[in-house]
Design a protein that fits this description.
The protein is built from five helices and six strands. It is an alpha/beta fold and 131 residues long.
């Protein structure tokens, strides 16, 4: 896994060479350690690979026992953040590379009340959980 994809505010890299479904599933496996296992919302943007990466994220979350994963499908980042608060979720994951060039993809992770979780913190969780 390329550790350079883990940034201060998100996780992003060139899809599928730097970030792919396997990496995203590992991220999903590690997130409940930080944001909980009750309710996590997952959405994705229209980029190449976003839907597939979202499916891998959902799979990773479910494999480690997240009780309720709410898949909102194609969405915007602000909508996901809004729903994290509105639906009283423990966190959310938006599959996106935001303003980066089209060959990039990645994810933004937030905890309760849509507070960002850094990519570097997620990398530490992955190392801790042995994923």
């Amino acid at each position: 896994m390329n550790e350079n994809i883990f940034k201060a505010y998100d996780i992003r890299g060139i899809y599928p060479t730097e970030i792919d479904e396997e990496v995203v599933e590992k991220i999903g496996n590690s997130l409940p350690e930080r944001i909980g296992k009750n309710r996590i919302i997952v959405g994705f943007d229209a980029r190449n690979g976003s839907k597939s990466l979202s499916e891998s994220m959902v799979s990773g979350l479910k494999k480690v026992g997240v009780r309720e994963v709410i898949e909102i499908g194609l969405s915007t980042t602000p909508m996901l953040y809004f729903l994290v608060g509105k639906l009283d979720a423990e966190g959310g994951v938006m599959i996106t590379a935001s303003h980066n060039p089209p060959e990039f993809n990645g994810c933004k992770v937030v905890e309760k009340n849509a507070i960002p979780v850094s990519g570097t913190e997620i990398l530490s969780l992955i190392k801790k959980t042995g994923e």
